[in-house]
Amino acid sequence: MTYCVAVRVNSGLVLLSDTRTNAGIDNFSRFSKMFTWEVPGERAVVMMTSGNLSIAQGVITRINQAIERSAEDPTIETILNVDSLYHAAELVGEAMQGLQDRYRQSIQADGAGADVTMLVAGQRKGGRLRLFMVYAAGNFIEATDDTVYFQIGEHKYGKPILDRVVSSTTSLEDVVKAVCVSMDSTLRSNLSVGMPLDLCVIRRDSYRFDVRQRIEAGDPKFQAISQHWGAALRSAFSGVPDIIPRIAT
Amino acid sequence: MTYCVAVRVNSGLVLLSDTRTNAGIDNFSRFSKMFTWEVPGERAVVMMTSGNLSIAQGVITRINQAIERSAEDPTIETILNVDSLYHAAELVGEAMQGLQDRYRQSIQADGAGADVTMLVAGQRKGGRLRLFMVYAAGNFIEATDDTVYFQIGEHKYGKPILDRVVSSTTSLEDVVKAVCVSMDSTLRSNLSVGMPLDLCVIRRDSYRFDVRQRIEAGDPKFQAISQHWGAALRSAFSGVPDIIPRIAT
């Protein structure tokens, strides 16, 4: 399984993903689910993937092949030369559709699922910050001020904290904390989501990755968040009013 | 959908359920999912149900019919006269198996799911506090000191808080708060779970329901928990250390 979360607030984009993939419970591996492309000062694009790993890797390969070929032939459209992030999301959707058409029947005949879901986000110079969720069918939706985040994979454990603290005016630093707390709740409650994590931050109108880092299992800052949050939750809980009368014990 | 949670701690049992059932999104109704039986001072038994409503109602009807018939014929085994809660869970499992055998094929031919899962809990005089989760196949597992709670239905949103604050030594009053917070998180994040709620508490060795109440949508104590928890979460969150450096804005 997977947990990836992406947030688009007024001041930028924050994306966080785990790295665990599994087929059954004894066949698990580590694969990055976050992929970034950058032309510093012109555009920064990031994608995160969930679902069938072979399809997801195929999509990333097609995107990279197009970028390589466009060096020779600039008429080839790529996520790095199209005139909008919307168009980039279309290219991702087309690559997904192409791979689904090619493999879906044979994958399903084998008893596995061929679906993938991807998050595509970024900004190009002259454009807006954008965040899209691209479905297996190639269609996609965009985050708005009403719904500032998308999650893919094992999303339920980590949703309540996002619902409570994230809105379009939240600072990027607080969004980073919120996605880390959301991931921490998921890691604690679901074995199929695992460290290390990949984090990236794109500040609005910077057109580059201000943060692009891997958070390893023993990372002291992530551990501090996890421990502080656990203690703060218990302390917050102790202040919650009773619903039934307390009796002497 | 449904959310039911049951906790067995040293000092007693706490159970909380929502009341929403739905088939699709525009066909939803209110049904209690909590059923209680009591011989005050001798035993208290409570069940909560999730899954196919017709099967669940059928199981409850069979249990009640057996109790009625046993007034005439005391050799009929019922959840109120068997010599252990374990045996009561077996009776529930048998009723589930019987109904599944009778309806599963026709329900599935109709495209619906026939599965139900039930939580059975209580204590009889001379016995221990017990909590069982009974599966559709009629088999069941019991809560232990290592795993003090079971959830059925839409369980993921409300799991992190239980993992953080509930253990076998938690007081009943705190367990009630914890299940209310767990339910509140679920209500906020999932439309298929809805107020009002049914709550019951059985104190150890009391063999009766110390609390058996319905919590309506506007209940001031539940609202106080919800509001306090929201505020406390945001306050707890503000104290979480940063993972990326804050920049002047």
Automatic annotation (TrEMBL), chains A, B:
It holds the Pfam family Proteasome. InterPro entries: Ntn_hydrolases_N, Proteasome_sua/b, UCP009120_prtse. GO terms for biological process: proteolysis involved in protein catabolic process. GO terms for cellular component: proteasome core complex. This is Peptidase. It comes from Kaistia nematophila.
